[in-house]
Amino acid sequence: MLYLIGLGLGDAKDITVKGLEVVRRCSRVYLEAYTSVLTVGKEALEEFYGRKLILADREEVEQEADNILKDADISDVAFLVVGDPLGATTHSDLILRATKLGIPYRVIHNASIMNAVGCCGLQLYNFGETVSIVFWTDTWRPESFFDKVKKNRQSGLHTLCLLDIKIKEQSLENLIKGRKIYDPPRYMSVNQAAQQLLEVVQNQRIRGEDPAITEETLCVGLARVGAEDQKIAAGTLQQMCTVDLGGPLHSLIITGGSLHPLEIEMLNLFSIPENSSESQSVDGLRT
């Protein structure tokens, strides 16, 4: 059996009891290490699970999946994923590969950012399509995701923006020369995402388009959701450029414009202070 097991969002103890029981009896246990990360490292997981883990990077999962599936028809193999196992299409591909090989599989679900985002007080029913914001480079500055933001806004729906992470990435030079030298991990912050969004807004204005959001659009920044030091901040898109939410992982929400009274009341708990003595009410923000 191939088991795909969600680890939740916080630390080693967020795995379900069911998932932990499976991990402890499997012959091999892989830890997917590129779509997301926990607040603790591999060693902490191994200590709590009582098992050695095999790190599986993007190349291993996408190009050498047969190594993961080897002997899974005659023994139990576990594949651990931060959040929920089906939060990324890569893991659906692993299921399809297993099925073609006649290997049975089972998914053990857990919390992911897709549902834990409700911690900020915005109602999950009011979210539209999720988008990903990637790191821009000097030569690659995609804006296509913004069409989905605009569509959500037109429907009065919030947009969850998943922010880019770069783990075990190679520079173009090292890639061309075939050198197995990797850049340090990078995690996009709410600040960086907001700055890129503002540039998209400016570009659309220059082209004479209606960007659907402005510097004053109400947004919510989230950091380390599910961890003990989780942080949430509600304010304008402009404020998101400078708010300090600490270390990774970050997510950003662009609100849909029309908020339910309970959503407004909840977001006021997380309003970004204008100064040390007072905070700006969400009611007063232009959405």
Automatic annotation (TrEMBL):
<keyword id="KW-0808">Transferase</keyword>
<keyword id="KW-0489">Methyltransferase</keyword>
<feature type="binding site">
    <location>
        <position position="250"/>
    </location>
    <ligand>
        <name>S-adenosyl-L-methionine</name>
    </ligand>
</feature>
<dbReference type="GO" id="GO:0017183">
    <property type="term" value="P:protein histidyl modification to diphthamide"/>
</dbReference>
<feature type="binding site">
    <location>
        <position position="87"/>
    </location>
    <ligand>
        <name>S-adenosyl-L-methionine</name>
    </ligand>
</feature>
<dbReference type="InterPro" id="IPR004551">
    <property type="entry name" value="Dphthn_synthase"/>
</dbReference>
<keyword id="KW-0949">S-adenosyl-L-methionine</keyword>
<feature type="binding site">
    <location>
        <position position="9"/>
    </location>
    <ligand>
        <name>S-adenosyl-L-methionine</name>
    </ligand>
</feature>
<feature type="binding site">
    <location>
        <begin position="112"/>
        <end position="113"/>
    </location>
    <ligand>
        <name>S-adenosyl-L-methionine</name>
    </ligand>
</feature>
<protein>
    <recommendedName>
        <fullName>diphthine methyl ester synthase</fullName>
        <ecNumber>2.1.1.314</ecNumber>
    </recommendedName>
</protein>
<dbReference type="InterPro" id="IPR014776">
    <property type="entry name" value="4pyrrole_Mease_sub2"/>
</dbReference>
<feature type="domain" description="Tetrapyrrole methylase">
    <location>
        <begin position="1"/>
        <end position="239"/>
    </location>
</feature>
<dbReference type="GO" id="GO:0032259">
    <property type="term" value="P:methylation"/>
</dbReference>
<comment type="similarity">
    <text>Belongs to the diphthine synthase family.</text>
</comment>
<dbReference type="InterPro" id="IPR014777">
    <property type="entry name" value="4pyrrole_Mease_sub1"/>
</dbReference>
<feature type="binding site">
    <location>
        <position position="225"/>
    </location>
    <ligand>
        <name>S-adenosyl-L-methionine</name>
    </ligand>
</feature>
<feature type="binding site">
    <location>
        <position position="163"/>
    </location>
    <ligand>
        <name>S-adenosyl-L-methionine</name>
    </ligand>
</feature>
<comment type="function">
    <text>S-adenosyl-L-methionine-dependent methyltransferase that catalyzes four methylations of the modified target histidine residue in translation elongation factor 2 (EF-2), to form an intermediate called diphthine methyl ester. The four successive methylation reactions represent the second step of diphthamide biosynthesis.</text>
</comment>
<dbReference type="Pfam" id="PF00590">
    <property type="entry name" value="TP_methylase"/>
</dbReference>
<feature type="binding site">
    <location>
        <position position="84"/>
    </location>
    <ligand>
        <name>S-adenosyl-L-methionine</name>
    </ligand>
</feature>
<comment type="pathway">
    <text>Protein modification; peptidyl-diphthamide biosynthesis.</text>
</comment>
<dbReference type="InterPro" id="IPR000878">
    <property type="entry name" value="4pyrrol_Mease"/>
</dbReference>
<dbReference type="GO" id="GO:0141133">
    <property type="term" value="F:diphthine methyl ester synthase activity"/>
</dbReference>
<dbReference type="InterPro" id="IPR035996">
    <property type="entry name" value="4pyrrol_Methylase_sf"/>
</dbReference>
